[in-house]
Amino acid sequence: MNKPIIAIIVIVVLVIAFFSIYYISKLSNASTIPAGKFVKISNVDLAPKGEVIVVEQSWYGCPVGAAASWAIYNVLKNYGNITFEFHYSDPDHNPANIPGLIFLNFTPTSIVRFYVGYVYNEYLNASYNGTPIPQNELVPVGEEILKEEYASMGLNPQVANYIIQYETQVPIQQYGKPSAYYVQPPHLNFAILISGPNGTYIITTPIVNPNILSGYSPQYVYSHLDNFQQIIQASQMIQQVILEAAGPLASECPT
């Protein structure tokens, strides 16, 4: 084997290793998970055959979801047609009035399918459809809402089970609590699950710091996505995890 070929192989191996370390933490057990990284939680493919699913859990007033929506859009616009509304997060929830997108529909033009479940309303005191929820019941009621939403979308029931498990039972290393319980009042906060032939991955912590968007309008952020380095970095992370989950289907993904 000549030296140029050896050099190319070494470079490819190093690139794969870099993305696995930087973007994806592969755990042998689920005692804790790190903030800011996807973790591979299963080798099981939860997507229909020949597809990759990207599933978001958020709520209408969520500042974390609002900030993440830009990165999600920035990636998935290459995989299909997205319709959305400009939006601000809950004005009474800290941080307040973070610009974001509420996703309405996704029509795929690729192997990737996108699903989003908004569990609560704008002010975190009712379900997405306005049914009041006492503060001390936001987590258990939210779990049932999420299961119902994803079931209506035709998703594998394990999708909701994993999101609930990793938000309510698995502590974040940096915080010592699951993501649903390091916020006040406790509630299903935010998650992205990606699954395909190579397995299932999840993140339950912010991928873009909402504070960097404070004071901007949704229209401004939409027109200046490339000016926000955190959005670009989060977009790259999502794209790499899609490719990782796609496994043998990765060649069918836009790059």
Characterization of this structure:
This protein has 255 residues and is α/β, with parallel strands linked by helices. Helices cover 34% and strands 20% of the residues. It has six helices and eight strands. A six-stranded mixed beta sheet has the order 1-2-8-7-3-6, with helices on both faces. A two-stranded antiparallel ribbon has the order 4-5. Strand 7 and strand 8 form a beta hairpin. The relative contact order is 0.20.
The largest sheet is: 6 strands, mixed
Helical fraction: 25-40%
SSE string, helices as H and strands as E: HEEEHEEEHHEEHH
Tally of separate helices: 6
> pLDDT under 50 segments (min length 5)?
3-22
User: Which structural class is indicated by helix and strand composition?
Assistant: alpha/beta
What fraction of the residues are assigned to beta strands by DSSP?
15-25%
- Please compute the radius of gyration using only Cα atoms: 18 Å
**Number of separate strands:** 8
State the strand order across the main sheet: 1-2-8-7-3-6
- The global form is globular
